[in-house]
Each structure stands twice: as structure tokens, then as C-alpha cells.
Amino acid sequence: MINLSQKQLQQIISLAKNYGVTRLILFGRALTAPAQARDLDLALDGVVGWKLYQLGAQLEEDLGLPLDLIPLTPQTPFTRLIEQRGQVLL
Length: 90
Description:
By secondary structure, this protein is an alpha+beta fold. Helices cover 44% and strands 20% of the residues.
């Protein structure tokens, strides 16, 4: 079960900005069915390569939650679906 507090959302956004994230979208069960969520799904733009892994590790450590990070670029049918159904955080 993953119920994100407003404080946790602000923490995610703040850390993402520090890493240079230009777009950040929450999607998946943490958004649609928090009681069934096993991890936190975030999609983002602005961070590539090793920095993406560093951001993911830092978020997992700070939040104490398992995490999946999905780059929004290059655009795919999956990322378009995320953009349509997800909650834009940044």
C-alpha cells in the first residue's frame, strides 16, 4: 500500500528539480489504486544516463519506497498513455 502524503510529493518534486527534471508525472497504482500499489511509478524528462539511476536511488532512500522511473523521451505508445492518464507533478 502506498499513500503519498503532500509532504512526500513535495519532497519528490524538490529532489527532481535538484536533478534537473523538466517534467514529472505520477502514474500507475500509486495514483489509481494506492491500497494495491507495491511501488511508486514516476515518468520524467530532463535526466538521462547515470543521473537517472542516481535520482531513483536517492528517491528510494529518502522515501523508503520501491520506485520505477520511466524516461518520457523518446516518446512511445506507453509514454503517451502515461501523459494522458498520469498526474503531472512538475
